[in-house]
Fold this sequence. Notes:
It is built from 14 helices and 13 strands. Helix 7 (265-278) links the parallel strand 8 and strand 9. The chain is an alpha/beta fold. It is globular and about 65 Å long. Helix content is 37%, strand content 14%. The protein folds into two domains: 3-206 and 415-422, Rossmann fold, CATH 3.40.50; 212-410, CDP-glycerol glycerophosphotransferase, C-terminal domain (Rossmann fold), CATH 3.40.50. Helix 1 (3-42) crosses helix 3 (114-122) and helix 7 packs parallel to helix 12. The chain starts with a helix and ends with a helix.
Amino acid sequence: MSREAGKKILKEQGISGFVLHYGARALTKVEKKVIGKGTARFCKIKKNRLVFKNRENLDFTDNPRAFFDYLLKMGYNDKYEIIWLVSDPGKFRHLNYKNVKFVTAENRYGWNSCRAYYYAATARFFFFSHNTQDLLDYGCEGRQIINLWHGCGYKGPEQGMKTEAGQKAKSEFDYGLVPGPVFVQTKSAAWNCEKEKIWPIGYPRYDWMLHPSMEKGEMLKEIFGWERAKSKVVMWMPTFRKSNLKGCRESEIQMAYQLPGLSGKEDLKKLDLHLKKLDMFLIIKKHPLQTEWSEDENELVNIRYVTEAMLEQAGVQLAELMGVCDGLISDYSSAAVDFMLLHRPIAYVLEDFMAYKEKRGFVFEDPLAYMPGEKLYDYQGIEAFLEHVAAGEDLYKEERERLMPVMHNPAENYCRRLVQWLKL
């Protein structure tokens, strides 16, 4: 860990937190060598054990949760023992699922429990959605690691893991999921793996998006208290620019405001008035990694920010909320790729396109050719897109349909398709 990171931890958590953080990291390394390596050497996989892991502190969401929900619905927990590796098992004590356990994966100080290494090593299938390499280093013979991932967009690959010699490390999983054929090439390059390991079968969470658990009016009332079910709703999901990720070059991009295309809060207030005239609502979802972000909505009426806490309280998954929206504003995010399946208007705010190309880069030589929607560069473009949605105009419908077979592999039920591929 860098000196800067250490200073940040000391500032945020104090001396005791600093000591606990580094102590937990040291203990975790010992546990991995002793428990992880020992289990892999002397134990065997449990053929009826499935292990799930999502992003730290965002447990029980995204693709792992979607697939888990399907397995329970179909009664697979009668046959399989299911282990969830989470940050805080206490949050899930009220869930009494048959043959399901919630086990500490990592706590706030970075400590991985001994049980986490044991269950990870002995799983028949280990499902994950975000980088979780420490728990994958050691496994019993026959274990299969399934990378459910969290989306394929336009952004260039992250720096990724390096070997001691500075070469790009091989990704440690057996199979990884992508939405459609074009992403087999992009992800095999990003993950440094054979194309045969990439399954273009879509994500489990697509079932949520295509078949939300609530009607549009009921969901919006539950989350925001909105009563006008017939009003059109657009969601804005920008990718992150500023973040705490080490070596993240897009953090160097300078923009006038936290939302691309806007020059400041005054533009946001003006947009709110425009939405009121159109009888529309705009939902803004901050990227989990975005820093330097303020959520000041005291003077806004038709614009609302949505947080993970709000979704959790309402019992709604983010993909479900996307599924009831009439249009999407995004940029280089995988959200825009996902939303294509709904056959509804999409807009891409590209204010920093050239800067992003220089700093992070794209997976496609010509990313604009894979963006079947309106390209926006300023406030006026955003207003125009909202007017088109309000009027029921879908200007890029034909282009979206042309790209669909390249970017997606549609299915009636994505979770069922994954079960079939795994031969559960």
